[in-house]
Amino acid sequence: MERSADALADEIAGTLLHRFGKLPADALPRDWLDATILTVRNDVVERWVASTRATQQRGLKQVNYLSLEFLIGRLLSDTIRNLGRDGEVADALRSLGVDLASLETLEPDAALGNGGLGRLAACFMDSLASMALPAFGYGIRYINGMFSQRIDPAGEQVELPETWLANGNPWEIERRDSVHRVGFGGAWQRDDDGRVHWTPAELVEAVAVDMPVVGWRGRHVNTLRLWTARAIDPLQLEVFNRGDFTGALADQTRAETLVRVLYPNDSTPAGQELRLRQEYFFASASIQDIVQRHLHSHGTLDTLPDKAAIQLNDTHPAIGVAELLRLLIDEHQLPYEAAWDITRRTFAYTNHTLLPEALESWPLPLLGRLLPRHLELIFRINADVLAQARTNPELDPRGVAAVSLIDEAGERRVRMANLAFAGSHSVNGVAALHSQLMRETVFADLNRLYAGRINNKTNGITPRRWLGGCNPGLTALLRDAIGPAFTDDLRHIAAARSLADDAAFRERFLGVKRANKALLVAQVAASTGLQLDPDAMFDVQVKRIHEYKRQLLNILHTMVLYERIRARPQGDWVPRVKLFAGKAASSYARAKQIIRLANDVAHRINADPVAAGRLQVVFLPDYNVSLAERIMPAADLSEQISTAGMEASGTGNMKLALNGALTIGTLDGANIEMRDHIGAADMEIFGMTAAEVAALVRAGYRPTELLAGLPELEQVLAALRQGEWSPDDAGRHATLVDSLLNEDRYMLLADFAAYDAAQSAVDRRWRDRDGWAASAVRNVAGMGWFSSDRTIAEYAAEVWQVHG
Ligand code: 26V
């Protein structure tokens, strides 16, 4: 063993003794994990302090990424790999009789996010640190992250609270000197000098809890600053003078409620007061912190836009626009115009969805009651927006109403996207099609008013976690074949393209895939008892359950395939394992119904001997980052089948392709750009384009008229309607069928024939083992551009003007 590993083993044993009071013989696995993390953290903290100092001394502009979600996952393996110390840590632990790999699985996922938006924030933090761009991520330290999902014996989703902090969090450091007061309610007045004073009815303290973000090769460490809430010291509030102990306790509980739980809804805004309180609590604390750090380093707020960029991850932190304006005007006495200029030059906004039901707006009375001064400033901003809009020849009265920060139709509401748009110098979508649709649809009038403000930054994924970390086999194979350059810059992975024609390489590539499938098979057997066939095609659809993502299209096709197998058991069927995973928002009844159906379909098919060896269906419970890290390397086929125009980008599509899965997908989101980089011949693209979808909506879509041309689907739907797939409760899926026949908002029927043809084409590809492997290799080789390092480089150059 190397000397460094020897020394490290001593350090870990020392941490075990001094922090936990244990000798190796008494240590539980959990103690070893914490001792290992705390020991590694010493190294991290030293680099962290050095990075922070260097940034300050060089006076560099910093990025502030404001996001209500950071879907990080586990940190130990990622961190030691980025430090280049993974082998050393494994050796040290081995010498102590401990297995690193099994320790790693004890670490809870930091699951502070719903899905793509939160995971993107985590990939961006990894890329910012890896590219040595100084950055803070700002978010909330939720006590309960994304709920964990069980599937009960009946096949229904059950939500259980997630408790990642139950055993403490060894990565975090509380910053007692970074504390800010956040107010709610009350009233404001203007004094004789015209200065505004807001007297909130409630105050809480936001306390910074920092987590280090270690970049690739450990060269730079950034900060993820998560806010926790505490009641203001009762002594200061003189509560104790009044002897009001229960009042003080109630204050503490009210403060904790703010950070209690991540809202698990990614389909419609919850619209609840607590959500708005969370948004303001976190935005206010973050903006105050940015202002304080800036003043500390630079002395004046005039230079804020030159030294700080603030990126809004969707509209969730958009109230921060009004908060910065308030601080500049009310606390720092800037005139409105100067304050607005600074604000607009500092903020930029990323939109992640065009689905109208997901656009946030707040009832005006609620916002006014909770944040009276902010509402006043929003009116002030809006006066300018509307004045400018009225002089714009491209905007008719309907256009003027559309750009207003206030929705006047029905109950008056504040439109957070319009606030974010007006308050930013840059507004971006997350894939080329999505950015174009922003210009043409939801934001068409804002785009007329602020021409040129919308730009595109196609999403990416960090190759450290989504290749190096989750697929060591493929990484080693690639390193061996094309050298290590791709581990520093994923663009070099293009060198693997010509290996698609190398038979020996293809065999090794298939061997890695087979081994990854075996690992997943073992995990599925342990978690569900189901024994999957590792030689079947692993056909996976893993993502949040949402109607627009069309898991139902996949399930219905699976049912049709099953009926075909039953009708012709001796046919030459390509063996498939249909793998589904994903969570449904707790309030999203239709999404839960889809999970239920997937499980009913799985029960029936898996129990039928006719399907054995030909078709298996499994719904894996509790999809999260760690499970994704197992699935991506084991997938053969990636289902990316959203109704065109509805999936802003997708990032699971990228993870699967980078790990050698072929995509069956629509021309939606980033699929389109993946086709450009991989080549159309190596993907199975099908279905309507976004323009065709829009045209069909305009022409009037009548799903039942299509049914006559889809006899197999018609039969499956009739059987489903009659309860053939739910013998214990015949009516269970009736409403699902009815909604397809009556409305079919996501146009499953319109795309069914094309999807079926594409699936047959996939079968033909699979039968040509060499052709399949060659395609898979070209998929891997084509993904260089989809590194989040590329995305971050574009943000840095075109939105933030920052450099390391
Ligand atoms: C939506 C909402 C809606 C209302 C308020 C609460 C809330 C919280 C989370 C979300 C998430 C929806 C937005 C989202 O995750 N979009 C996804 O963003 C990914 C990263 O840009 C992108 O790849 C996916 O296509 C897009 O669906």
TrEMBL record:
Its cofactor is pyridoxal 5'-phosphate. GO terms for molecular function: glycogen phosphorylase activity; pyridoxal phosphate binding. It is an enzyme of class 2 (transferase). GO terms for cellular component: cytoplasm. Its EC number is 2.4.1.1. The modification N6-(pyridoxal phosphate)lysine is found at residue 655. Keywords: Allosteric enzyme, Carbohydrate metabolism, Cytoplasm, Glycosyltransferase, Pyridoxal phosphate, Transferase. Coiled coil: none annotated. It catalyses: [(1->4)-alpha-D-glucosyl](n) + phosphate = [(1->4)-alpha-D-glucosyl](n-1) + alpha-D-glucose 1-phosphate. Allosteric enzyme that catalyzes the rate-limiting step in glycogen catabolism, the phosphorolytic cleavage of glycogen to produce glucose-1-phosphate, and plays a central role in maintaining cellular and organismal glucose homeostasis. This is Alpha-1,4 glucan phosphorylase. It comes from Croceibacterium mercuriale.
